[in-house]
Specification:
- The complex is a heterodimer.
- Chain A is an alpha/beta fold.
- Chain A is built from 16 helices and eleven strands.
- Chain A has a single domain (about 5-300, about 375-490), classed as Amidase signature (AS) domain (Amidase signature (AS) enzymes).
- Chain A has helices spanning about 5-15, 20-40, 45-60, 105-110, 155-160, 180-185, 220-230, 270-285, 300-315, 335-345, 350-360, 370-390, 415-420, 425-430, 460-470, 485-490; strands at about 40-45, 75, 115-120, 165-170, 185-190, 210-215, 260, 290-295, 395-400, 435-440, 445-455.
- In chain A, helix 2 (about 20-40) packs antiparallel against helix 3 (about 45-60).
- By secondary structure, chain B is mainly alpha-helical.
- In chain B, helix 1 (about 5-15) packs across helix 2.
- Classes of the chains: A alpha/beta, B mainly alpha.
- At the A-B interface, helix 9, helix 10, helix 11, helix 12 and helix 13 of A face helix 1 and helix 2 of B.
Amino acid sequence: MTSGPASLLSAQVRAGERSAVEVVERHLDAVARIDPELHAFVTVLNDGAVAAAAAVDTVVAAGRDPGPLAGVPVAVKDNMCTRGVRTTCSSRILEHWHPPYDATVVERLTAAGAVVIGKTNLDEFAMGSSTENSAFGPTRNPHDPSRVPGGSSGGSAAAVAAGLAPIGLGSDTGGSIRQPAALCGVVGMKPTYGTVSRYGLVAFASSLDQIGPFARTVSDAALLFDVIGGHDPMDSTSLDRPAPRTATVVGDGVDGCRVGVVRELYEDAEPAVRAAVSAAAEALAGAGAVIEECSIPEVRHALPAYYLLAPAEASSNLARYDGVRYGLRVDAPDVESMNAATRAAGFGAEVTRRVMLGTYALSAGYYDAYYGQAQKVRTLIIDAFRRTYEQVDALLGATTPTTAFAIGDRVQDPWAMYLSDVFSVPSNLSGDPAISVPFGSDDAGLPIGVQVLAPALGEPMVVRVGAVLEAAAPPLGQPRLADRALLGGSSEPS
Amino acid sequence: MAERLTREDAAYVARLARIQLSEEELERYAEQLADVLEHAAAVAALDTEGVHPTSHPLPLRNVLRRDEVWPCLDRAVVLAEAPAAEDGRFRVPRILGEPL
C-alpha cells in the first residue's frame, strides 16, 4: 500500500523530524510562486497558517501528539466557514463576509493537527462545473492552463494537483468534488450523505450537498475522510452513528468483490474515457474481482431531475442573501427594492439562472409538473440502485464524459456545461458514496478519472476498489503548472 | 406539458426571486431557462403513477435536543457583519409602501 504525502508529512512532524512551520512555509512559498497563474486560492492564510503550524510544533515539543494530520497543509473550499477569515463562496454578495464561527470540518481539521493554508476558488455558491463562474476569475487546470480544472471545487482540486497542498476539502452537490478531481488528475470522494457534518458549509442544495476529501492518493483521501467524518449535533441531517473507518481497510484489495460496470455511466463518454473504464474493469478482474456488465436505465433521468431539484433547493437557500444581516447591500428607498438591487448586484449569471429556474419549478402551477415529478424520479433512481446492489458490491463507471475542456468553451450554453455532471449526479440523488480515481490520460495528456460507487456507508468498499485502480492506473504526466519538488517527494525538505 | 417559457414568465419569476433585471437580461434568461426546461420535459413525461416523492436521502425525523441553554454568538459580533445596524438591531429601509 503506498502511503500518501499527507500521511508522510504527518509522520515526520509527529516524530519531530520536521517542523510544521517549515512544512507550511514550504507550501506557502509554492503558493506564492505558482498561484498567481493557477488562481486556485481566493484567500491565502499566510500569517494565520504559520501561527497554527507553530502551535502544532509546540504540542510536539511538549511530547504530546497533535493528531493524525499533524502539520499537514490543507486547501479548504471557500464555501466552508472559517472564523474571522473571509468566506466568499466566490460571490460578490459575500466578498467581505467574515464568519463568526468555524465549520465543523474546519474544527476537526484543526483538532487533528492540520493547518488550513487558504480558501480555494469555486463556481459561485458551488454552482457550476468549471470554476469559471467565480466572481474573482477562473482557476486554471495545472495540466493545461488554457483549460478548466472542472468545478465547482476547482480551486481545491487544482491546488492538490499542483502540489500546493497535499490534501483539500471540497463539497459535492452534483459532482463538484469528483468532476474536478477527474479533470485535474487527483482523487476525490463524495461520502455518504450525512456522514460529514454540513454545519458551516454555506448551503446550495441541502438534500444533496456533502463535504469530502481531495488527495493525491486514495490512502490520503481515506485519512482525511476519517478525520472529518462522524456525527455532529450541530447538523440535524448528520447520521447519528459513527462514520465508517476507511484508512485501515484501504489496502484490503478486491478479491471476490462483485463489481458492476454500468453502461449508462460510460457509453456516452468520449472514446479515451470509455477505454479507461474498460481498462479499469480489467484491472479489477486481474485483482480478483468478479466483473459484471449491468444497466440502470433510470440513471438517464438523473441529470434533468437534478437540474430541477438542485435549483429549487438553491432558490430557497439563497433567499437569505437579502442585504439585511450580512454581506452586500445596495441601498434603495424601500426594503423590496433594496433586496432586488442587492441580489442583482451580488449574484453572477449562473446563480441568477438557477435561482430563477428553481423559483419557477416551485411556483404555483408548475410545482407538480417539475419539482414534484423530479422528486418522484429521485425515488425511481434510488430504488434502481438498491436493486442493483442486491447483485453487486460496487459499481464502476466514468467520472465525466470528457477530459478538461477549454476555458470559455461552454459558458454560453448552460446545458452543455450541465452535461459535465451526467455521470456524477446519480450518487447525489441516491445519497450514496462515490470516489473518482485518476486512470491514465487522453492523447493530449489530459487526466481521465474513473468512478467507483457503493451503497450508503460503503466508503470502505469505494476506497478498497479505488486503491486497486490507483495501483493499476497508467502513469499520468506531471502537471505543467506545479511545484515539482512537492509533487515528487514532499517528504524531503527543500 | 407547459408552453415554452416567455419573457413575461421570466419577469414574473425574477420578481418572485427579488432580482432586479434589465429588459435585455430578461430576454436572455428567458431563452436559457426555456432551453433547460426542454430537457426537463423528459422527466415531466415519465410515468410516476404511485411513486412516492423523495425529498431527502435519509429517513429523517425531527431532531430535537434537550431544552438547555447553550452559549450563542455575541450580538455585537453578529451585528458587526451587518450592512447597517442601530441600537443593537439590524437597520433596514422603509418596509411599508408601494409593492415592487
